[in-house]
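**User:** I keep going back and forth on a fold encoding question. It is easy to fool oneself when nobody else works the same problem. Could you pick a protein and write out its sequence and tokenised fold? Could you put it straight underneath, so I can go through it closely?

**Assistant:**
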Amino acid sequence: MSFLIRVQLPDSPGTLGAVATALGTVGADILSVDVVERGGGVAIDDLVVELPSGRLPDALITAAESVEGVEVDAVRPYAGVLDTHRELELVEEIAAQPKCGLDILAEGVPRIIRAGWSLVVKYTDDGVRTLASSSAAPEAPITNLPWLPLERATVLDSEDSWIPETWQELGTELAATPLGKPDKALLVARPGGPMFRAAEVARLAHFAGIVSVVLDS
């Protein structure tokens, strides 16, 4: 089974290699590594690893944190394909089918930023409308999004009163970015975390800006 493990580690030569060696001692095979954020002598990395059948994911935490200065932010099952360069491919797909563009965006963006699901929502005088949703998104309609209209990309407080109880029970981390205009937004969620980092939010905003131009929204 594959897992996505997010680690904070000293941004120094050899540390990532030491983590890889430690994970290898529990039989974990690293499939890919993505640098999420770097600064202040610390790096945030996402590692997709494959763990042999019968091994518990807790073993990944113990192994990684056996390396001095390393902390594990989150571990969760991961069935997606880690491809941090898929933005262009998705933009091309949206441009080729603009009538379905929002649906393609909602389905594709969780794979780019390793989220669980996403929605495209719009604020109107009659309330909130869901314009598109990914296949894994909650089916219950959302009627209250007090942060809309939205001026800039942001991480949302996962304990705000508007958040449905089922989302809170799953420890859902949320981020949103305007999609062309402040009254339309792309909402992305990670049930169980990890939290969205500043670099990820900036990446989300940049991508949404490109898509909004393509769709002229």
In short: The longest strand covers residues 29-39.
